[in-house]
Each structure stands twice: as structure tokens, then as C-alpha cells.
Amino acid sequence: MKTIIILFLTAVIYFPLTASEPELRFPDNILKHVNSVNTYPATAIKSNTEGYVDVVFEVTDQGTIQVLEYFGTDPILSEHVLKQISEIRMCPFDMSVGSKFRVRYSFNLM
Question: The whole model's pTM is what?
């Protein structure tokens, strides 16, 4: 039986995004929310799908996450991450409102 280990890596990638760059460091409140997307989709496990999803997002003044761009190696993984991120709610008065962040979600079966 295959042991499934979810390697959940959050990596900030440094390169410009149009006019401004995403944040290089995650404040604790953002890190907590980013790390809440930590499940491996069941359909991806069944089909032995591995890969990653890069997401650039902004915290809106309503406390929601607006995805500005994303790239995923597999549509199942991309859809899963985008759904999870869309459910994140933050305080609308947070200091991170208007900031852009870049994160990579990696999915590996071992």
C-alpha cells in the first residue's frame, strides 16, 4: 500500500508582476490563511496526480482574496486550490488589504 505524504510547500517566488511586486514575506495572519489550503484532492490521489499551483493574489478591502493570476500543472489541482482560496475570509481592516502575494502549492505523493 502506498503511503501518501503530502508535502505542502509554500514558496514565495521573486519576480515582478506588472506594475508592482508581490510581497516577499508573508505576515503571520496571511501565512495562517495560506497554510489553511492543505488538503490533497481525493480525485488527484486516485489518479496519482502530482504537481503544483502558483497563485498571485491580493487581499481586498472586503477581506476576501482576489486571484490575480495562477498557473497549475494540472487542472484538478488548480481548481482545488482556487476553490480553497476563494473560501478564505480575513478582517476587512487588516494591514494586508491591497497587498499582493505570490505562493506555490506543491502536491506530491510518496
Answer: 0.71
